[in-house]
Amino acid sequence: xxxxxxxxxxxxxxxxxxxxxxxxxxxxxxxxxxxxxxxxxxxxxxxxxxxxxxxxxxxxxxxxxxxxxxxxxxxxxxxxxxxxxxxxxxxxxxxxxxxxxxxxxxxxxxxxxxxxxxxxxxxxxxxxxxxxxxxxxxxxxxxxxxxxxxxx
Length: 152
Description:
Elements: H1 3-9, E1 27-30, E2 33-40, E3 42-43, E4 46-47, H2 58-79, E5 87-98, H3 106-121, E6 128-134, E7 143-151
Parallel strand pairs: 5-6
Antiparallel strand pairs: 1-2, 2-7, 3-4, 5-7
Helix pairs in contact: 2-3
């Protein structure tokens, strides 16, 4: 089953790859490695804003993290010329969670992205990662995640 077929089975349609919001490129490809810039939490209704431990709970944060993973896959698809089946594996994610100083469940929030990638890609979705707190994120979003991917 293709990656696009698996996404469709899960009811997920990839958006167009989001354009950069500042002076950077959305991804850089070196050899068989794609480095994707941070993707912020968003969905069909716009940005997913909030602060974990204050205005958002872990479940809502996990949904925000999943949206980042969807945007990461959209960027990988763009990097692969529209053919997402060129994706070999997810190598590493670095996730930033907009949270209060006493919030310590960043890993549970980021599982929203990690679990989704494994659901879509199987073992190829398993990755190294970091999940850290941030005092604030761009535009007040709840989560931002960048990623490193191997392609063929």
